[in-house]
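FORM 7B: Structural annotation worksheet

SECTION A. Query
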Amino acid sequence: MIDLRSDTVTRPSAAMLQAMVAAPLGDDVMGDDPTVIRLQEAVAERAGKAAGLFFPSGTQSNLGALMAHCGRGDEYLVGQLAHTYKYEGGGAAVLGSIQPQPIEHAEDGSLPLEKLDAALKPEGDPHFARTRLLALENTFHGKLIPASYVQAATDWARQHGLATHLDGARVFNAAVASGKPVADLCSPFDSVSICFSKGLGAPVGSVLVGSAELIARARRWRKMLGGGLRQAGVLAAACLYALEHNVERLAEDHENARLLAEGLGGIPGVKVLSQDTNMVFVQVEPALCDGLTAALDAQNIKMRAVYGGPTRLVTHLDISADDVRRAVRAVADYCSTAPR
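SECTION B. Predicted structure
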């Protein structure tokens, strides 16, 4: 199967599964699972932070961070298309009693400083929620957020007494694409959530990194949210394997995405909107959407051609250059014969 729907669909390799089977285990709720400890320390060191905390998912890792930074009735500034705001079930508001203040993105995915200024609430005025945190995302829809903007935005946050959090689900993609150490991308932030179940290929797991004090607060929230796992080293071992073997190869995914965009760009009825890192966004003529999705599915090629908005195609470690060429041929064959 060629599955282009997301990089979350990857399957653990035989070597990763063997690492999971062989992992030494303890009880992570009691803090003595050696494989979890090793993972947390390794990720924190790679990110340039003091401590790390293993979570079952990126959604829970982000929420744990928000709750560690903000109290009941506090507010965080976030992009209106950001994952922590739009795609995490409203957890900050429902479970954290934290008000999100969504900000409209600029074309490059950043949040303009003048819009952040306008959204900042007056300190001490009881009419307003208390602005406490700025949350950014990198990569954002595959785009690498400019380092100069990240520095300016986090400087702005600190000038106003705000903490900073990075949803770094694909921060290793950003590091590989920029040619910079991941610690450089994490450095401006007080906390970073790093996901291992996307391009890095683990079946489960994210690690939140930050100061020892913040991680201690997040550990309590993780338990309350149901994220305290026992012999979690079985899962942490997969993340360790990914950290040690699957980071540099992300460049292959970026190159395959470029090949995919080039191939689709010459097909009538398909307009390539953008390609950044491992994501390609295309616009498919509405009359072709249902038929194209079904035709590809019949050939064991998974994608969702959608109406009224861009279709996202994502490359990952289970997609080869030959798979890309096969997918392009299948799209071209259908579009050349389908009635419009």
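SECTION C. Observations
The radius of gyration is 21 Å. The mean pLDDT is 96.

SECTION D. Sign-off
Analyst initials: ____
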